[in-house]
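Bumping my old thread because nobody answered last time. Still need a sequence for this structure:
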């Protein structure tokens, strides 16, 4: 290494410094650049956002045509036997019921000018601020109108200012949330909706109606069992029925009510049987008033004498 006209590198030039953690300013700049990209590009196809724009339960923005294409490809893979598929939405979008069309208000000046779709300004209809990385924006479910969070917070009541549709505070969805608090709230909201058989758009989830139909006969049977008033049935003691009542030991309400009814009917039959005359003893007594017995003597009583016979 010498006499060749080159230079000999020193240790200072060869040894690199260790990578340093980014400071808060660098993290904020990176986060702003990321938000700026996803505010103007579809999170699924990476194309420029063009209306109609939809959003899922996590607040991400998509082009509706990209969501339709992804759903068609997923169903095609399922038919071909590809179980894994190519789920690019982390399981948040399984049908169009899992998305809500976000209705942004476009700046009229920008809308009238011949600008590209990527330069269209989406503004809050209340405050007039441009919605983007610098302003925290939300949209309402199920109407989908987008506002600045400050405007929604100051709205009197829970009614959309654009369409007058009612909403609940839990259905205010932040667009592209950053804080962990908002992300955790959205996850809890989705879990609650799934337990109720609903989707992100507050529509019934596919298959939830079948489960309700299967559970309906069981509920109707329980309702019929509750209608039977066991207190209205007389509780007879064991001495009258002759059979010990075992309805108290039966845990099933419907079976217990049926057992009690059978015992009551059996007790009524036993009572009627005691009050009715005995057929076996009925033949020993005469149905006449006893006049014929007085006219005959004791020798002929009990049998009849032929009419032609002499005494």
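Sorry it took so long. Here it is:
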């Amino acid at each position: 290494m010498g006499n060749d006209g080159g230079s000999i590198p020193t240790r200072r030039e060869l040894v690199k410094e260790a990578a340093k953690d980014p400071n808060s300013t660098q993290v904020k700049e990176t986060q702003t650049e990321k938000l700026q990209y996803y505010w103007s590009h579809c999170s699924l196809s990476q194309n420029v956002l063009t209306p109609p724009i939809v959003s899922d339960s996590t607040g991400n923005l998509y082009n509706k045509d990209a969501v339709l294409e992804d759903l068609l490809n997923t169903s095609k893979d399922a038919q071909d036997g590809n179980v894994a598929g190519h789920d690019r939405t982390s399981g948040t979008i399984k049908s169009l019921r899992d998305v809500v069309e976000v209705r942004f208000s476009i700046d009229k000046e920008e809308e009238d000018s011949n600008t590209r779709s990527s330069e269209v300004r989406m503004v809050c209809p209340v405050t007039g601020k441009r919605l983007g990385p610098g302003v925290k924006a939300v949209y309402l479910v199920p109407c989908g109108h987008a506002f600045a969070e400050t405007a929604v917070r100051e709205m009197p009541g829970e009614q959309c200012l654009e369409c007058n549709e009612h909403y609940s505070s839990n259905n205010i969805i932040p667009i592209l949330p950053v804080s962990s608090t908002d992300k955790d709230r959205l996850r809890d909201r989705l879990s609650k909706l799934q337990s109720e058989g609903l989707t992100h758009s507050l529509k019934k989830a596919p298959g939830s109606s079948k489960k309700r139909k299967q559970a309906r006969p069981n509920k109707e049977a329980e309702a019929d069992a509750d209608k039977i008033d066991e207190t209205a049935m007389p509780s007879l003691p064991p001495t009258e029925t002759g059979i010990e009542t075992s309805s108290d030991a039966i845990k099933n309400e419907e079976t217990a009510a049926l057992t009690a009814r059978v015992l009551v009917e059996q007790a009524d039959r036993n009572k009627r049987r005691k009050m009715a005359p005995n057929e076996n003893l009925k033949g020993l007594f005469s149905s006449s008033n006893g006049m014929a017995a007085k006219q005959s003597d004791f020798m002929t009583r009990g049998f009849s004498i032929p009419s032609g016979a002499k005494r």
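The first strand starts at residue 53 and ends at 55. Let me know if any region looks off to you.
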